[in-house]
Design goal:
The complex is a heterodimer. In chain A, 57% of the residues lie in helices and 11% in strands. Chain A is mainly alpha-helical. Chain A has one domain: Sufe protein. Chain: A. Chain B is built from 14 helices and 17 strands. The chains are: A mainly alpha, B alpha/beta. The interface between A and B is medium-sized, with 17 and 14 residues.
């Protein structure tokens, strides 16, 4: 699936929640619970995303020309948000990540539940994922 | 569940416009009163009336509007004098709130009278605003900051306090009630013991003003600080009460208009109390409206407010402690209506966010008391704090919300 196809899928899922805040929050946490467990060894100081109010770890690896992300957070809602980003970006080519336009957050009105304090952290996560993609793309070009 | 109080809570609620709204599709339940409480219509009207009817700069003008504004402003000073039972009206200094009041004392009294190796005592229950100003002045004057430890339930360890006091102790700065845990501190005893070694005592009354009787003459405290916005008044206003003889000995805090008697380029003589400490145009509108907050409290009476809030606290404590996963933080014998709690394995942010989804406003985090959180071994707590317009039915909703979170995350 392309990045946009995944985004559309997420938008569709959230539309079923019909704007109910409590159900939406529970759903996000459920997504977090389903996120693949991140290796404890990867939860290093280096992998902490700076600018997040809660702790967010993000690790990435390149496999067969595609980027795969691992992530975790010490808060359930943030973990759910991390899982959405991982779902959108993981398994994509670095170039696709770098050129992506993330519109699903706006469509599912994510600002309702991340608030001003968390939205900076969310932006930091996206930036970090794109930085990984950039590093891998440079690596691929050199090779 | 109906309240047993004699107060007509529904009637009181009608006076608070902000309470009558939906948040995330649910009726707003406001339990973040320790951060700031809501304003009755008479307070809001007072701000509007000032700007619409008699906005003018105070003290200097001779025209009608200036007279009217000055009179209203000084009326609040008199009502705050009564509110804290100060002996003299000039002992009431208007500030932006408790933070500024503490900084004023630290910067003027502290800087003037602290010497190298003198000691300042605070408690482990303090808000950052009653720690950092003292740290700053201690660093500058090479004085030492000493901390009274607290017990498991969140009370000041009085025997440890007695041991800390000595001839070098110059200032003791303690809150009347803790913002994070609600603990009411035995300030009369704390003040008496400090005076025995010749120290002055500043009381941070931020969490007490709306809930407890304040009698600075009975307490015999040297300074008492209040924020208007925590007692149904507007933000950006507050007072510093100080004993007259101390205020007279202290140098001004800021220089500017209003605080002077005569200015030449060679020498400036300062104005009398309280104006010596009120440089510049003050927050006229909000100080005037603070008087209405005092009127609101007095109309109900502090005694009745305290009684009803204590009933809410008891009810909330029962309801929350009945949820197995909930651990109450702060269980002192004497408390204002604040209950902090944690749920093992669930981050306070998540609880706060989930409660917000049900229209319930609580505070999560360290509540500007990081050293206290370290002492209690928690990263932060969820804090529900109650006010006279809250109801037991709202507490039922809180308990229900917490139960749903526990069931979801810890099935």
């Amino acid at each position: 699936m392309t990045i946009n196809e995944i985004q559309d899928e997420i938008i569709n899922e959230f539309s079923l929640l019909d704007g109910d805040m409590e159900m939406t929050v529970f759903y996000i946490m459920e997504l977090g619970q389903k996120l693949a467990v991140m290796n404890e060894v990867d939860k290093t100081e280096n992998n902490l995303v700076k600018g997040c109010q809660s702790k967010v770890w993000l690790a990435a690896k390149l496999d067969d020309g595609k980027v795969f992300f691992d992530g975790d957070s010490n808060t359930a809602i943030t973990k759910g948000l991390v899982s959405l980003l991982i779902r959108v970006f993981s398994g994509q080519k670095p170039e696709a990540i770098l050129n992506s336009d993330l519109y699903f957050m706006h469509k599912i009105r994510m600002e309702r539940f991340i608030g001003t304090q968390r939205s900076n952290g969310f932006a930091a996560m996206i930036k970090q994922m794109k930085l990984y993609a950039l590093a891998f793309q440079t690596q691929l070009t050199k090779a | 569940m109906t309240a047993t109080t004699a107060l007509d809570i529904e009637k009181i609620r009608l006076q608070f416009p902000v309470l009558h709204q939906q948040v995330n599709g649910k009726p707003l339940i406001y339990f973040d009163n320790a951060a700031t409480n809501q304003k009755p219509k008479q307070v809001i009207d007072a701000v509007v009336n000032y700007y619409q009817g008699y906005n003018a700069n105070i003290h200097r003008g001779i025209h009608t509007l200036a007279e009217k504004a000055t009179k209203a402003f000084e009326t609040t000073r008199h009502s705050m004098q009564k509110f804290v039972n100060a002996k003299h009206v000039e002992e009431i200094i208007f500030t932006r709130g408790v933070t500024e009041s503490i900084n004023l004392v630290a910067s003027t009294y502290g800087r003037t009278f602290l010497k190298e190796s003198d000691e300042v005592i605070v408690s482990g229950l303090e808000h950052h605003s009653n720690i950092v100003p003292w740290q700053m002045v201690c660093e500058e004057k090479k004085a030492k900051l000493k901390v009274i430890p607290i017990t498991e339930v969140g009370e000041i360890d009085m025997s440890a306090y007695r041991k800390l006091l000595n001839a070098k102790t110059k200032i003791v700065a303690i809150n009347h009630a803790s913002n994070s845990l609600g603990t009411i501190n035995p300030i009369k005893e704390i003040i008496k013991l400090a005076h025995e070694v010749g120290a002055v005592v500043l009381i941070d009354g931020a969490q007490a003003a709306a809930h407890l009787e304040i009698d600075v003459q009975d307490f015999d405290c040297d300074f008492y600080c209040i924020s208007s916005h925590k007692m149904y008044g507007p933000t950006g206003a507050g007072i510093l009460y100080g004993k007259k003889n101390l205020l007279e000995k202290m140098p001004p805090y800021m220089g500017g208009g209003e605080m002077i008697k005569d200015v030449t380029f060679e020498k400036t003589t300062y104005n009398d109390l309280p104006y010596k400490f009120e440089a510049g145009t003050p927050n006229i509108a909000d100080v005037i409206a603070l008087n209405e907050a005092v009127n609101f409290i007095n109309t109900i009476s502090k005694e009745q407010i305290a009684e009803y809030e204590s009933e809410l606290l008891t009810y909330a404590t029962e309801k929350l402690s009945a949820i197995p996963a909930v651990k109450l933080i702060g269980t002192a014998k004497e408390k204002v209506a604040v209950q902090s709690f944690i749920i093992e394995g669930i981050h306070p942010f998540d609880i706060g966010q989930m409660l917000d989804a049900r229209g319930i406003a609580v505070r999560t985090g360290h509540h500007c008391t990081q050293p206290l959180m370290d002492r209690l071994g928690v990263e932060g707590t969820v804090r529900a704090s109650f006010s006279v317009y809250n109801t037991k039915a709202e507490i039922d909703e809180l308990a229900e919300g917490v139960k749903r979170i526990v069931n979801f995350l810890k099935p």
